[in-house]
Amino acid sequence: MKDAFGAPQSLLVLGGTSEIALATARRLIALRTRRVWLAGRPSPALDAAAVELRDRGADVRTVAFDALDTDSHEEVLGKVFAEGDIDVVLMAFGVTGDQARDEEQPTAAVRVAQTNYTGSVSAGLVCAGALQAQGHGSLVVLSSVAGERVRRADFIYGSSKAGLDAFAQGLGDALQGTGVQVLIVRPGPVRTRASAGRPEQPFATTPEAVAGAIVTGLRRRSETVWVPGSLRGVMSALRHVPRPLFRRLPV
User: Fold this and answer.
1) pTM of the model
2) Which family does it belong to (predicted)?
3) Yes or no: domain 10-246 corresponds to CATH 3.40.50.720
4) C-alpha distance from residue 195 to each of 12, 126, 141, 199 (Å)
5) Catalytically annotated residues
6) Measuring CA to CA, which of 29, 83, 109, 192 is 20 to 30 A from 35?
7) What value does the mean pLDDT take over residues 194-221?
8) What is the pLDDT of residues 83-100, one digit of tens each?
9) Which candidate, 232, 233, 191, places its Cα nearest to that of 210?
């Protein structure tokens, strides 16, 4: 349950090594979140993330979670919720893939779609059901501006995020009146360790900026946040650009 000041006490991260997720966890811990679950594939990186958050004062546990193993989701996530109420679930797992390779290797493209969409549908429904059963909580879904108007340059990744975004919107509508918030986060290109050295992209942002928008969106009980906020107007305009013209745009 949230504390007397409205701050969440517990956080479940799906994608426990995500830079955005960890930046969000740091902010929430600074705001008195005390119990954190990091779910992800067992790895030294997951263990290191847990140690860092423990050093910040949180009770941190790790749990083995594989987005592609959808048959395990109910059991794995059910055990987490059985330990006590969860105030915030942050779905932050996903893969970008490699567009050129994935077009040549359909099985690789399917892996992108299964991770970003199918895995999220499975985990999202399990968590939404648990939040609804406890009568409160927030489900934060890390979408992407890439799903708003899918581009030729990354249509495999973009289409998987478009599906995820549409799913999250529908789930949010279905949960209206239940006490459960669904917050969709649509960041622009995020500067991470993996993107270091690459050319700067328009409307690029940072994990810390996305984390700040998530915390603000949780406090305001928003349904959607854009990072940076100017992307809302840009994408509203781009959605109405005719396809022949859109193909020629440098986006």
Assistant:
1) 0.94
2) Belongs to the short-chain dehydrogenases/reductases (SDR) family.
3) yes
4) 26, 32, 22, 9
5) 157
6) 192
7) 89
8) 999 999 999 999 999 999
9) 191
Report how far residue 65's alpha carbon sits from residue 41's, in angstroms, rounded to the nearest whole number: 5
Structure confidence at residue 194 (pLDDT): 66
Q: Residue with structure tokens 């929430």?
A: 28
- State the Cα–Cα distance between residues 231 and 238, nearest whole angstrom: 10
Helix (H, G, I), strand (E, B) or coil at 36: strand
The DSSP bridge partners found for residue 180 are 137
